[in-house]
Amino acid sequence: MERRTIGAGALAVGAVGLGCMPMSWAYSGSRQRGDESVRAVHRALDLGVTLLDTADMYGPFTNELLLGRVLRERRAEAFVSTKVGLLVGDQHIVANGRPGYVKRACDASLRRLQTDVIDLYQLHRADPEVPVEETWGAMAELVQAGKVRALGLCAVGARGGRRSGARMHDATLRQLRRVQQVFPVSAVQAELSVWSPEALEALLPWCAARGVGFLAAMPLGNGFLTGTLRPGEGFEPDDLRARHPRFTAEMMAANQPIVAGLRRVAGRYGDEVTAAQVALAWVLAQGAHVVPVPGTKRGRWVAENAGAVEVRLSAGDLAELGRLPAAQGSWD
Fold first, then answer.
1. Buried/exposed 220-246: b ≥16 CB within 10 Å, e otherwise
2. Contact 81, 147 (CB under 8 A)
C-alpha cells in the first residue's frame, strides 16, 4: 500500500488507516464479536493498513485490550494510535487533563495494548479545568520518557460552529497554537468526508502549512456514504446513530443524492469500485498529509477500504463531487 507520513518526524503509515472504535463501542453491540474483530485487524496489517486508531475510553478499555491481542504477535507491523483525556461514567463522559492522570492513563494503555511504546498519543478532549499547556506538557514528558513517539490533538468545539455558522474549528486552531509552543503537534484528527467537508476551510490548510499529519475521522459518514444503510431501517438503541439527527429516516432520505453522486462516479471506474471507495478516494485526494481512518469491525470492509488507494479520481470527478448538494440535517 501507498505510504504517507505523519508530522515532521516523518512517521510512515499506510495511506488508509483502521478505526477500531466500532469493534467495541458506539455501534450495535449485538454485532460486536471479538474474534471477528481480531481477524479484521490481522487482515488490515496483511494489506498494509498499519495505522490502528483506538482510545482508552472505547469500551471503555476493551478496545485497547482487543488490539493488544494482535499487537502481542505483530507489534512491529503496526502504527499504534490511542487517545487520552476522557473518562466514561454512568450515562456521561467527562474530560480529565490533569498531568498525573495522563501519565497513569498512558501506563494503563501500554499494558492493555501489550506494547512498550505508543506511536501516536492523542489528546481526546482538553479539560476545561486544566490549562491545555499543562496536559500537553505531561504528554511531552511521556515522549521524553520513551513511552510515546509523537503527539496528536483531536478536534474540538465543532458543534457550536455548526449552529452559528462560524468557522467550526476555531477552538481547535486556538488550542493548536497554544500546545505548539510546548511540544510539536504531529497529527490532528478531525471529521472529514464528502458530507462533512468543513475541515477544508481552515484546519486542513493549517496542518499542511506546518507539516502536521491529518487523520480524517468518519470519512464514510458513520456508514452513510457506503450506500448500505436504508432510510427507515432503524438502529439498535446502543448505536450512536439511533440518536443522531442526520440518521432519522427523513434526513437519510433527503441525503440520498450524495450517495447517488458517489455511485455515479464509482461507475466510471468499473463494476468493482464502490461508493465507499470513491468517498475514501476523495479524502485521499485532499492532500498527501491526509490519512482517512474508516472504522469497521469486519475483514471484508477492511479490504474494500484498503482498495480505495487504487482509485485515482480525475480532476473532473473531484469537481463533480465538490458540487454535490450539502448534507441536510443538524449535527446536534
1. bbbbbbbbebeeeeebeeebebeebeb
2. no
CA distances from 280 to 117, 192, 307 (A): 29, 10, 9
Query: What is the chain's alpha carbon radius of gyration, rounded to the nearest angstrom?
Result: 19
Measured CA to CA in angstroms, residue 231 lies from 79, 218, 252, 254 at distances of 36, 19, 5, 9
How many other C-beta atoms lie within 10 A of the C-beta of residue 76? Answer: 6
CA proximity to 132, closest of 107, 158, 157, 164: 157
Active site residues: 58
| Cell representation of residue 241 | 446513530
Q: Please, what is the average pLDDT of the chain?
A: 92
Say what angle helices 99-113 and 62-74 make with each other, to 10 degrees. 50
Question: Nearest-5° angle of CA 63, CA 67, CA 73?
Answer: 165
Distance CA 228, CA 240 (A): 17
- pLDDT per position as a tens digit, 257-293: 999 999 999 999 999 999 999 999 999 999 999 999 9
| Residue 108, H or E segment | helix 99-113
Q: What are phi and psi of 188, to 5 degrees?
A: -120, 135
Write down the pLDDT at residue 235.
87
| Secondary structure (3-state) at 94 | strand
How far separated are the first and last CA of the chain, in Å rounded?
Answer: 37
Q: Name the 3-class secondary structure at 27.
A: coil
Amino acid of residue 90:
D
